[in-house]
Amino acid sequence: MHPVALVADSNWAMRELMRRTIEGAGFVVLESANARQLEIALRMPLLVAAPRALLVVSATLADKARDVLVSLGKQRASLGFPLPHIILTCEFGALAEAPRDAPSGCISAGMLEKPFDFALLQGIASRCHTSPTGIQPVGVSVR
Q1: Neighbouring-strand partners of residue 53
Q2: Which side of the chain, N or C, has fewer Cβ within a 10 Å radius?
Q3: What is the CATH number of the domain that holds 116?
Q4: Gap between the Cα atoms of 5 and 29, Å rounded
Q5: What is the mean pLDDT of residues 59-65?
Q6: The pTM is what?
Q7: How many structural domains compose the chain?
């Protein structure tokens, strides 16, 4: 079974670019465009039982789906899988107001402010692919 990533952002172009980038790091990628789709995807057996799980989620959508994110972490832990890594993304200028903590049951892998360097995203995804116990979070601002 392959590692699985979930990309959740309301902007189609951003999802497409993030999907391509994360596929380059060796993940099978699922996508969601809104909070409802995110909640459904977070419950998918493919994500729950993946050997590695990476979530790249806009901070706005993550806030709306916090309970389901916590539930995913609990499910993975009960099955003996590593907790999912999560990268939160935020709009340009919103980094200062964005939540700094990952939902419980998730390992923070970083926070990226748009527009961000996709090579950085791929690097973080590659580290998540190979490091089940956690990585040093990365915060990036273009200011």
Answers
A1: 4
A2: C
A3: 3.40.50.2300
A4: 5
A5: 90
A6: 0.89
A7: 1
